[in-house]
Specification:
It is elongated and about 70 Å long. The protein has helices at 2-21, 32-35, 38-56, 60-80, 110-119, 137-141, 210-223, 242-251, and strands at residues 93-101, 124-128, 146-148, 160-163, 168-173, 183-190, 193-201, 229-234, 275-280, 283-290, 302-308. The protein is of the alpha+beta class.
Length: 311
């Protein structure tokens, strides 16, 4: 009985580690979402291996424990890649951004979401699935008179940028037929510095190669932009996923020192960060925090502080 139990548990743990280890051999889209949970899986296997070692006394659990520790350690290393130095030059201009996927069917909480947005005193706001906020747009417009989306430049009300400053060269487009009208760019001028705002809502990574292709289109769109860039939105993937790491490397975008978990809601701070805010110098990301309440959404919102320097 003991030998059979050891075999079953060891096989399950080996399969779990093998699945997340495949990323080091080849990049297959069907595993893209699983790689976002690499740290969680490694910790789970390590703890189970310790328990198996204590109860079943099999050396196979020592090997599994070592394997899990190595994968977990490399995951922590990947989380530290592309992080901001969080250093603000003295002459830099402060800037605050709020980014929140509010959930399209969440109209019942529109007033509470508007309260939360206004309470953060952000200079600009990115909203995904913004149809839930149609009823409060007139109220938000009193603080944010400039808008892209929900009737401005597009009839759809999905991706929305709100700004206290005029939006120049503003436009909304599609990243793919899966993510229609879910990519927006605009330029604002703050303290004499032109800052490019970019918002995106990407397809889920297990929809064939769409996620990678959409990242490629974002990369192409911002490649021609000079000066500071702030990109935020719902990426439906952790920054340690292979295509996300390639994207950050190619674009020279930086992320927070540690990104707050935004999904799934029941997991709280033990979830994963699939919503992101990135910056490209001379925009420096100082810190990113999670909104304290999800306000009926299936994501937590993010608020980020930046220091914008002259190019």
């Amino acid at each position: 009985m003991k030998a059979r139990l050891t075999c079953v548990v060891a096989f399950a743990l080996t399969l779990s580690l093998a699945v997340i280890s495949l990323r080091y051999v080849f990049d297959f889209w069907i595993l893209a979402f699983v790689t976002s949970f690499q740290l969680h899986i490694a910790i789970m296997v390590a703890l189970t291996s310790l328990l198996g070692l204590a109860v079943l006394r099999s050396r196979i659990f020592v090997l599994l424990l070592i394997w899990a520790i190595v994968l977990g350690a490399h995951t922590l290393y990947m989380h530290r890649e592309f992080v901001t130095e969080a250093y603000a030059p003295k002459e830099a201009t402060p800037f605050r951004l709020l980014s929140f996927n509010v959930l399209m069917e969440n109209g019942a909480n529109a007033e509470s979401i508007a309260d939360a947005i206004l309470a953060q005193r952000a200079d600009a706001v990115y909203v995904m699935e913004a149809a839930a906020l149609r009823s409060v747009l007139p109220r938000l417009q009193q603080t944010y008179p400039y808008r892209l989306g929900c009737g401005e430049k597009t009839q759809s009300c999905d991706l929305l940028i709100l700004s206290k400053l005029p939006l120049m060269d503003a436009g909304i487009g599609s990243l793919s037929y899966v993510s229609r009208d879910r990519f927006a760019m605009a330029t604002i001028e703050t303290a004499g510095i032109k800052l490019t705002l970019v918002a995106a809502h990407l397809a889920k990574p297990y929809f064939d190669e769409y996620h990678r292709n959409e990242l490629s289109r974002i990369q192409s769109a911002i490649a021609s932009v000079s000066g500071p860039v702030i990109l935020g939105g719902d990426f439906n993937s952790a920054s340690i996923a292979p295509d996300m790491r390639e994207f950050l490397l190619a674009t020279d975008l930086k992320k927070a020192q540690w990104e707050p978990a935004t999904w799934p809601i029941p997991a709280g701070k033990f979830g994963i960060a699939i919503d992101h805010i990135f910056a490209r110098a001379p925009a420096t990301l100082i810190k990113t925090e999670r909104l304290p309440d999800n306000l009926g959404s299936n994501h937590f919102g993010l608020v980020a502080d930046f220091a914008i320097a002259k190019p």
